[in-house]
Amino acid sequence: MASQELASLLAAVYSPSTPHEQKRAAETALQQLAATREALEWALGSLGIAAAPGADLQALFFACSVAEEAVTFRWPRLEAGEQAAMRSALWRAATEPGGPHFVRQKAAAALAHVACLDWPERFPSFWPDLQSCLGDPARRSSGVDLLAATLDHFHSLAQTTSAGLKGRVLSAAVPDIQRRYLELQPVALATLCSLLQLLGPSLPAAVAAGSGNNGTLALAARTLRALRAALADANRLPEQQGISSAALVALLFEFVGAARPASAGAGNEASEQLAQVAAAALDCAADLQAKHFGAAATQQMLEVLLPKLQETCGLVQEHWARQGAALQLDDPLLTSFVRLLVQFFTMQLSNVDATPQLGVALNGLLARLLALTSARRSPVDVLLFLEVWHAVLSYLDSFEDALWEAGDDVAARQRVKQAVAGYKEPILAVSDLLLSALSPAGTAAAPFSLDALSCAPSSGAAMEDWLQSVVSGGDSGRVDEAAAERQEAADAEEDEYAEELLVPGAAQGLHGDSEYDVWVRHAEGFLGRAIGSFSADLLPAVLQRFQGAGTAFEQACQAAAAGVAQAVAAGSFAASPAAALEAWLPAFRATDICLQLLTRCGPSFPTRGAADGSAGLAPPAGSGEPVSGAHAAQCLRVTFQLAGGWLQAVQAIAGASQQQGQQQGQPATPSLAAAAAGGGGGGGLSTMLLAGSRLYKVAGSLTATWLSQLLAGLVQGSADPDAAAVAQQLVQGLLSTAATLLQAVASPQLAGWQPLLHRAAVWAAESLVSLSSIALSSALKPPPQLLEGIWLSHETQTQLLLAARASLENPALLPVRASRALWLSLSDLCLRSWPAQPAAQFDAAARGAAFADLTRPLVLTFQQAAAAGHAANGGEASLAVAAAARHAGAVAAAIVQSYAGSPKAVRGIVSSTLVGPALPSVLAILHVGPGSSGSSAGGQGPLQGKASAALLRLVAASLEVLATELGSEAVGQLLGALVQIFGAAGGDPSFESDLLMLQLVVSLLSQGGTHRHAQLLLPALSYCLSVWERASAPHAAAATDADVQHVRAAALAALLSLLCFRWKALMGGGGGGGGGSVSPATSLAQQAAAAAAAGGQAGQPDSEGSFFVTRVLQLLLEFFGGAASLAVVLPAADVRLVLEELFELQVAKRLYSLPLFQAARAHLAACLLGMLLSRLYRGAQDELGDTLFGLAAANWSEWHLTILPGVVDSRLGGVGPSERAALLAMWGGADLDAHSFERRLHTFLNDAAHYERSCSGAGRAA
């Protein structure tokens, strides 16, 4: 190989000035060159002189790549002499000192792969030479790296799961690799422990040297990382590998403790290296906590571990003292120690009994941890150690199981309670620390400031990632359940404010969490859990802080409104619209945090003493008085009072801003909205609005939890009878508070403020749902006067009804979610909340009249939208019609869905007064939708896709809940009209309505016998086919934002489902024996002619049915054929969707064995196997394998003699004859059960990938 040519190619690749095309050509040339025998000989020679001075680093890197490629892809094909030469060259490059670090690392990785394949039979010198290397001080560090790489490589290759078989080695070699890995582990562990014991005494001298690049410290860190690799197999215990777990822990903490002398004059670089060594030892100890040693071994280990953990707390404090006040988020000693503690409390402690001796030791550890939590008065430290305290609470949860197991054993229960009591003091101390920081009591100063945390929107993402990395410790094999729960909660919060639940403009105020938000959420999460465990102690503290925060909040709202008014009067409001609110930011924040805690307190509040009128909001501080039901009632009253004051302040600010806008000739609301949105979670205005909105959420939460318990006690006779008046008062207070807010939001006085108040509107409306659910509960059966009082009240009959009707006239006033909740409450109250009467006295006429009066605006909205749709020519009028129809459709669908399972008389009222009058107008609206003659230019009519989808959801809910009341004939007519509308109009350009229609068609036609709605079957099939054709059009993907691949999959799944349920109707009495066969090469016209000929004796319906069956199965082949040919890459979810319906069809009709499917069977199986061989569909691997088994089981001879050889020849054309024979031979020739088929399929896929890799490398070499 010409060195000049190589040098020019490398220069072209690595030079930043090389043109792109020239660089790509050079890279291609290097790839082709790397696989040649000449290049391998050159690479071995270059690696032999890697340590020489002045070596060309670019050439060395290419030489390493050549050697790695030969080992990975061509090792079995190399001659024995070449293998020996490579082992020798790689050994020198990996272990000889002096060479570049990347050369040693890449050579060690290649040599580890060779060892996994050849040691000890064909590479017997590997372990003796490695031990010799470890015994040589000059090469010891390289030997440790090589051992760690070998352990990692063995661990990776020994995986036997379907995901682990990636073709790196043949499947037949895996059992031998696993056996040799088990043999290597104990000797590797013993060797590393011996090396650590050798290094331990030399650490003081290394620390005293205090120089950078300290070889002893670096070697210790490398050895500990290698030890972690040796402990990676969680199924093997140290005792099974010849070493005591307790002794191993003691050895590890020798290296942790070695970091302590660094304060006695060691340099900064040596101190950092010591911290890295200690962190590596702590990581090893943390990994040990995931293993179950057995009671005796665990007890011995804990006797060593617990004192060491307390000593490490002191070490961390000394480490902080050396660092000074500076906070380092990437402090390895701190983060590794926290991870060890989390693993210890979460996993290992549950393996031993909670003895008094263990409790004493743990109390000592928790006392040291409590000191660490607040030592530096840093919110980041507190946040980090909260992960440990969460783990402590998780450990305490295990005592609940112990209490259940104790049963009636008084002594056992007492022991459990005594054990839990030992953790009470530190948990309460941490809780008090958090409460004092979040909401200081009175004039007391906070223990630490949160000002260092950023309030910038989305700044908290990095903090969340950091916390997750601390807990996981980079261990990809362990699932972090806490992180998963946090992510689930974040997703739920994101869904809560999804776009369709917001009024226009509200989305601009939603941002990702700031650092402050993340800190508060974690602190509030811990406090919520602590309240659940120690409510008697923490509830008074929460209420006392809420008492102080509520007073400050009320004053802040009044002062803020006055400040805005003064700013408007002074003319400074326009320059800084939210400046008047910033001074009250602490009061707003403190209240918001207290409210978040109160949402968790509802289940913990007692109901006893609720009628005590002398109780305040909270027990006096230091009195020891327990919380009673009176305090909970007063908490709700204060919440109502604060909500009223907040709303008045908002109205005053809105009035002042409107006044300022009138002075300037323009509205001021946009500037306020921008201030609130820009403030994210930190601005004064945004925080004020959020805290005030949360008042309504707290009111609904306490109503759904505590107030429902109080009413249950009244019904059951366990509560004070005098509490009935308190319950009536609180119900009226909640009703009045929510109604006042909703009416205000819909009023002109707050015009333009709806985007800022969307949370308040949603939470206020949902608090009404909490109220109506109590009043309607069949289990509670509250007093009749309570039921009558709610529906006949002024708030319901005037304020709520006006707000509900206003939201229909102007959908921008309330979010859809708020409107749904409001209308649900009103419909429940007017239809269900009547005095308790026997069923025989049910006055359907009176209730029906009330429900008709309520829902008449909904029906009128649909009728007006239908009339306007015929006359509209697009523009703003069309958009207004679409918005009104969408809003009303969402509301009506929610109402109808809420009556699923209700008595027949109630469902009859809903059907006759709402659904019956509304459906004709709904169909008329849909008829003038997109693509119809009434549409505007561009195919977008007055009804947009989301509005059409909302109306279809109403239809679907009606057919699901009220099918009996509507009648079979009406249901059939309705479905037929929908199919005709969507089929004639060309469907929805966004496909959103089409996806709902597909579900609706399948749902209705899958019910009842084959004769039910029989006349709709062929039109429905035609419609489903039209959806497929539109989604398959050449420009469909560019013309819409819809996922057309998913639309195709949904249409095909619907067609397969219809075939499954209506097969007999389509194929006649033959059941599929006739009708020709499906072939991928048959044209559509030929299939139609064949279907007509086959069905001629049975009449025209059968011929049409055969045509549809043939066409659907043709689409099935087209769908998977495109994926197999890599013309398109399908999402795994879409593949599973289609295969699930195909499985149902196979189970019901034995499709794979029918003559109709005979010609398609081999082609479909080849496509599915090709998809698996592409390794692009691991997410659908199980479903693809199950379908393949069904296809193969239909004709095993065809599978063994036709399908497998055809796929191997077409998909694996690069493999040689011997490899081809091996792939086919592993299947045998006999019939297989499902389990055997799955194992052989995994083996086949792995070995095929291996042969492809090897043969492609050999082909390039040739």
What do these coordinates show?
71% of the residues lie in helices and 0% in strands. It is mainly alpha-helical. The two termini are 15 Å apart. 47% of the residues are buried.
Contiguous uncertain segments of 5+ residues: 474-501, 505-510, 673-682, 930-943, 1081-1101
Give the overall silhouette: globular
> What value does the Rg take, in angstroms?
37 Å
Distance from N terminus to C terminus (CA atoms, Å) equals 15 Å
Q: What portion of residues belong to β-strands?
A: under 5%
Main sheet attributes: strand count, strand direction, barrel closure: none
Q: Total helix count?
A: 52
Mean pLDDT: 82
What structural class do you assign from the helix and strand content? mainly alpha
Query: How many beta-strand elements?
Result: 0
Helix content: over 70%
Mind sketching the topology for me?
Blueprint (H helix, E strand, L loop, with lengths): L2 H12 L5 H15 L2 H12 L8 H18 L5 H16 L5 H18 L7 H10 L4 H18 L16 H26 L3 H7 L5 H16 L14 H13 L10 H21 L6 H29 L8 H17 L7 H18 L5 H28 L3 H12 L2 H15 L21 H13 L8 H16 L18 H19 L1 H36 L8 H4 L2 H17 L27 H36 L4 H11 L4 H33 L6 H23 L12 H18 L8 H9 L1 H16 L6 H17 L11 H28 L3 H24 L5 H24 L17 H17 L1 H4 L1 H18 L6 H14 L11 H16 L3 H4 L4 H18 L1 H5 L16 H11 L5 H25 L7 H18 L8 H16 L7 H14 L1 H16 L5 H9 L8 H28 L1
